């Protein structure tokens, strides 16, 4: 989570170095979005403005892509909850994975990690068409039928 209360730029830089040193294969990171039902909501005054958390998240994705060229990096739904084109912007700056929301609509409101979560009114079948269009907007293409392991993972496993 990027933009937690009291998180410093040094903390974020250390996170990137940790990912590299640990040799991760995939990361999902996005802006911290406060939820009124959590203890951290009581100190929301200590948060960066939402737009700054969004911009910082894009910078973290771009920085990690430069640092680790062969891993999978997810464009999170939290990006889209702040900016309607958030996930596409994540793809443009270096993310290469987008997670579909396949939770049946009946249960989606029971899984609200943060408020203003996008696509909660879509059924899983609708999500596919939406993702195709969104990825095309970012000049990308979904690799249907392809296994999703990162190049980093395959290289590590084949040594």
What features would you describe in this structure?
- The protein is mainly α and 159 residues long.
- Helix 2 (50-67) links the parallel strand 1 and strand 2 (72-75).
- The protein has a single domain, classed as Aldolase class I (TIM Barrel).
- It has a three-stranded parallel beta sheet.
- It has helices at residues 9-22, 50-67, 77-82, 86-93, 105-108, 124-137, 151-157; strands spanning 26-28, 72-75, 97-98.
The level 1 CATH classification is Alpha Beta
The number of domains is 1
CATH superfamily: Aldolase class I
What does the main sheet amount to? 3 strands, parallel
Task: Give the spatial strand order of the biggest sheet.
Answer: 1-2-3
The share of residues in helices is 40-55%
CATH architecture group name: Alpha-Beta Barrel
Query: Runs with pLDDT <50, length 5+?
Result: none
The CATH topology assignment is TIM Barrel
- What structural category characterises the helix and strand content? mainly alpha
What is the radius of gyration? 16 Å
Number of helices: 7
Distance between the termini: 32 Å
Q: Count of DSSP E strands? A: 3
SSE series: HEHEHHEHHH
